[in-house]
Write a structure and sequence with these properties.
With 217 residues, the chain is of the alpha+beta class. It is built from 7 helices and 9 strands, in the order βαββαββααβαβαββα. It has 3 domains: 53 residues, probable RNA-binding protein from clostridium symbiosum atcc 14940 (Defensin A-like); 78 residues, GMP Synthetase, Chain A, domain 3; 70 residues, Ribosomal Protein S8, Chain: A, domain 1, CATH 3.30.1370.50. The termini are far apart. InterPro entries: Jag_KH, Jag_N_dom_sf, KH_dom-like_a/b, KhpB, KhpB_N, R3H_dom, R3H_dom_sf, R3H_KhpB.
């Protein structure tokens, strides 16, 4: 990491010089003030410029990529990691000639844990938050479709039996998929219960639809 000492009439001027000399952006510049600017006698004698020591913060996406390469190697998995820049996040997609089930884990738990650790590594420096997402051979989309189909089957059962059905514990993203899939399905509603790893969704008959059926009778 290259450190550079820069001076200027003001702190802002010194920062601007550092950004230019290090060919970076203000967001990726880290600096500490070595000397505050001081005005001398009559504005001339004894005056001191502002002085900062600056360096460029590591690229969070590069940190994430290097971390993932190392982790996959330690797991003994031979995989290609492809970076895909999305509108609000960076996606790293794993592909391999061998089975990636060990990387994905049961219901995607290993992939989720690896994604969590990757975000910690990428954002351990001060600065704007960079969101990293991981996928492996389109697992995310396949899992999404599975959850949507599950949600519709359970909603149909609840509508017929008028009995609530609890689902298995899921992470926040998967619970959102269930909530979204059923938000416009008449006759049912979804609520989340439990804490931490035990938090799950219960698909319940909608009270309004139950009252309607009673009135019809």
């Amino acid at each position: 990491m290259t450190h550079l000492t820069v001076s200027g009439k003001t702190i802002d001027e010194a920062v601007a010089k550092a950004v230019n000399e290090l060919q970076t952006t203000k967001e990726r510049l880290s600096y500490r003030v070595v000397q505050e600017p001081q005005k001398g006698f009559l504005g001339i004698l004894g005056s001191k410029p502002a002085m900062i020591e600056a360096h460029v913060l590591p690229d969070p996406v590069e940190l994430a990529y290097n971390f993932l390469n190392e982790m996959v190697s330690l797991m003994g998995i031979h995989a290609t990691i492809t970076k895909k820049e999305q509108r609000q996040h960076t996606l790293f997609d794993f592909s391999s000639e061998q089975e990636l089930g060990r990387l994905i884990g049961k219901r995607g738990q290993t992939l989720e844990s690896l994604e969590y650790l990757t975000n910690l590594i990428a954002n351990r420096q001060d600065g704007a938050y960079t969101r990293i997402e991981l996928d492996a051979e389109n697992y995310r989309e396949r899992r999404k479709q599975t959850l949507e189909q599950l949600a519709l089957r359970v909603a149909d059962k609840v509508s017929k039996t008028r009995e609530p059905v609890p689902l298995e514990p899921m992470n926040a993203l998967e619970r959102k998929i269930i909530h979204t899939a059923l938000q416009h399905i008449s006759g049912v509603e979804t609520v989340s219960e439990g804490k931490g790893a035990k938090r799950h969704i219960i698909v319940m008959p909608h009270p309004a639809s139950e009252k309607s059926s009673i009135n019809i009778r």
